[in-house]
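lol so apparently i was supposed to do this last week
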Amino acid sequence: MAVLVTGCAGFIGWKVCETLLREGTRVVGVDDLNDHYDPRLKQWRLDRLKQDGNFTFARADVSRRDELWEVLRTLRPQGEEDLEAIINLAARPGVRQSIVDPFKYFQTNVIGALNLIEWACREGIPRYVLASSSSVYGESCPRPFREDARTDEPVSPYAASKKAAEVLCHAYHYLYGIDVTVLRYFTVYGPAGRPDMAMFRFIRWVAEGETIRIYGDGEQERDFTYVDDIASGTVKALELSGFNVINLGSDRPVTVNEVLRVISAQLGKEPAVSFLPPEKTDVRATWANISRARSLIAWEPETALEDGVRAAIDWYLENRSWLKEINI
Ligand code: UGA
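anyway here it is w/ uridine-5'-diphosphate-glucuronic acid bound
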């Protein structure tokens, strides 16, 4: 069996590939290695994946249909059962940046999702997993967020693009019977994380003695979820059939100020903090209800915040020489 993972050099994609490879699954990885954030991070992750003989890589942009389909045609293993599933983790990520170029977000997150699910249906690939986001719950959902809550009031182009991809995939499931699982991830963090996200930035800023920049008062809450837990839940989702929407979150929301306290305590440094105006695209709080993940895929988040932060800090310190130069 082989699984196609798009966005394989991304933060979550890399971990999902690693998890599949560890289980002995062959992985076909696709990524365009774009410069939305420093590509050195993507290359670092990809170099690790390439060490596994069960991993095949091709560079392609999921939003460019002809090119993508040509690449997929040539990559597809011949004369065997071949592709069991597509896990679509290729995305323009980041809530706040999505107001800068919303078109790119829709190109990748919606047209890219469409190109992949259309191809899957034409090629008879039975299963499709879509990476979605806690941001679809918007600002007014009761917490903890349940998957059956209303999600039609997103507050950023990013969240709107994820919601659009979700409903598009529902239409394909209805029309062609493809099994679809939509995973709503909650603020994922860990080693080799994205440099636009709070966890990476705070670790770097505290470690290097730079001033911390917090949007708003820092009392906004996030259900920070460790990347290995996210990867294991994503791989488990391959067992499901039908159409499912599942939250993957740690069910332990903490404030941004608290995360900074944990990082500072572990690094043994007291940073200077600058509080900036709040970002309109940021929701005040997230919190996942994870009963569905527990019952459908027997998933449980296993990593406590302190342990996850420790792993992210260790990784930063091991790679400090080049990470302190990364543009954030
Ligand atoms: C994250 C990811 O960036 C999204 O791609 C993902 O879809 C989303 O989680 C999700 O839950 O689905 P976000 O929650 O904004 O989005 O995560 P961070 O970028 O780590 O920000 C967390 C909080 O820290 C936000 O309130 C943000 O305003 C704050 N922050 C972030 C700062 O105060 N300063 C910074 O420099 C960065």
